[in-house]
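#struct-help
A.M.: can someone run this one for me? Single chain, 278 residues.
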Amino acid sequence: MILDGAKAQAAIQAALKSRIAGMMQKPTLAIIQVGRREESNAYIARKKKFGESIGASVLHEQFEENVSTEVLLSKIARLNADASVHGIIVQLPLPPALDKTRIQNAILPRKDVDGLGEASAHIPATARGIAELLAFYGILVRGKKVAVLGRSALVGAPTAELLQKRGAKVTVCHRDTPNTKEITRASDVIVVAIGNPHLIDASYFRDDRTQVVVDVGVTAVRKEGFVRLEEEIGKVMLKGDVAFESVKDKVSAISPVPGGVGPMTVAALFENLLDSIE
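D.P.: on it. Structure tokens below:
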């Protein structure tokens, strides 16, 4: 079974549209972008399109690459104080010269709808999207063995925490874990978020076709090799961390890249937005 994120997103989209129709005020999301990276433009366009489709407003605040941390903090302070703005996100990645932690933590907890600040009131959007993708397809994690490959603050750590709260027996693996294959082969659900294209092949899974794989990794690749996502995304193909073709017939369900977790992250972002005002 393919875990189709677009199909699951459509169900959430309809529910959010219905919720907004009953609201007194229109939910508003502010997106702060630094620079003009092609892939960031594409991601923001998807968020705008989804927001408009459910009746939410999306404000796009764009700054040049050489903007200072202080200027961004000042902008965030104004958005924090604006009662008509219900959610604020900073489109990543940011230039290395900027203090990403200070910038993320400057967003008010209730308005931090990406869930990336240390005090955010929301579940990180990607982690929520992963959990809801599984739920949409009737895949329960309570009592199940779950392996999370990757421990990043953006995906791995919050996903492990969320699934643990939902009753899963979670093991987090990282580059220093000596027996990752042993752990994944013994697991019921495997979430992969390591940022290494096609590293996870069929040898990481059992032969009984009972396991579920969620691939969160996204790497842009040219025919002649790997490129950074800062380069034009239209000239590259996207690959996940899982070698999809070799793995799909060994497992019971798998999410594709693209089209799996990505659409669900956008949907979860707007779920957090509505939660911030209800």
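A.M.: thanks! DSSP finds nine helices and eleven strands in the chain.
D.P.: also worth noting: Residues 125-263 form a domain with the Rossmann fold fold (CATH 3.40.50.720).
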